[in-house]
Amino acid sequence: MSTLRHCFLCLFLCFALFACGSGDEAREKTAESTDDQIDLIVKGTHIVTMDAAGTIIENGAVAIDDGVLVAIGSAADIEAAYSAAETLDGDKRVVMPGLVNGHSHAAMTLLRGVADDLALMDWLQNYIFPAEVEFVDPEFVRIGTELACWEMIRGGTTTFVDMYYYPDTIAEVVERCGMRALISATVIDQRSPDAENAGDSIAKGNGFIERWLGKNSRITPIFGPHANYTLNAEQLAATRAAATQYGVPISIHVSESPFEVQYAKDTYGTTSIEFFESIGFFEGPTIAAHVVWPTDSEIPILAERQVGVIHNPTSNMKIASGIAPIAKMLEAGVRVGLGTDGAASNNDLDMWEEMRLASFLQKVDRMDPEVLPAMTVLGMATRGGATAIGLGDTTGSLEVGKRADLIQVAFEDVHHIPTFDVVSHLVFVSDEQDVASVVVDGKVLMKERKMLTIDTDRVASEATALAARIKAALAERNSSR
Questions:
Q1: Helix/strand/coil (H, E, C) string of 167-235?
Q2: Do 252 and 276 belong together in one domain?
Q3: Rounded CA gap, 412 and 428, in Å?
Q4: pLDDT at residue 241 above 80?
Q5: CATH number of the domain enclosing 420
Q6: Residues 123-162: tens digit of each pLDDT
């Protein structure tokens, strides 16, 4: 059904309700007057819209057609107004926007647990970078990304920002599984699995952008320069110039660790964020992962430049990178979202855990229990996260005209009995096992916990076999030392 047709239908429904009253008779006449069929109706005991007003509808439903949210309201009114090819029942279900994972390295699911309990630079330089050069190829990326998409869909994530190698392979997986993603062509000045150096990375990134820009509305190809300590000022500026040429954003690690901050001071005579500002790096759309160590003078730069900051509390804690001043950044008007980082440093892709830890970390850091309440954190994982990555007009809230990216969360397990505050339960009680159904762009990807777009048996088998080869190779390497 076209958007114009929906507009005429909505005007007709408003006139019918005004003329006939608001009872069953009005709904019956409306239904009789409408023979248009839409694709999908999703119902819920609660509809948590995450719109600007924080609207929550009891016993509600959303109507979806051609991948777009066309109506939101009470279940009775929606079902009276629309006939759907498919309906997801909503008993003991909360319907809400899908979660937005603003920073990930999806294929690193295959390196989960390879190296734990290490500081960032030790972990990267002595374990992860060598392992990637040895093991990562298109097959590794395909299997690892499929495994990650399975895990993210299972946990209610509908959109993610990824930074890894062989981005064409990642995009092909995302295209098949049905998720929404910003996929980075990684730029790094060292030999990596898919490039020899920064110049080679940028050249190959150009090709990736050209192949995928505009090809699929769910996939946004972007550039992913790794960090200011793996690229020099000229290489970072060249990456920004390439992104500007194609009109795409950049995703980059920023001010993640004390090492990075000190490196900027030693190399450029300034702090990390001030260095990026000095070379004009923030003059285009930027998604900055981590931002654990911004100074008080740098936070206003992030706000003014509308940099999207992605907080990764679990990864930051596990690698002991520090506690990001999220409350202070929010107070300054910085756009803040949440991310999991890669499963090799987390070690999962559970956005519910990120919400809970984000709130608790700020409360204990400030010694203030009122900091980062549930609604604020839920916003960081949905509406705010979508805004931080540049998709605020597309997804992140349930509003008519936006793309239909949403989930049903089951409130039937023991930890949801009783429920006094649905938003409190979503943030402080729910986990990935509570997600029942997932819809992206109007397509059902998981229905009542059954995956519909990923062959999970095949992915599990392939991931297990590949992991066995990696484990054997690592054991042989270690034994020869």
A1: HHHHHHHHHHHCCEEEEEEEECCCCECCECCHHHHHHHHHHHHHHHCCCCCCEEEEEEECCCCCCCHHH
A2: yes
A3: 16
A4: yes
A5: 2.30.40.10
A6: 777 878 888 888 899 999 999 999 999 999 999 999 999 9
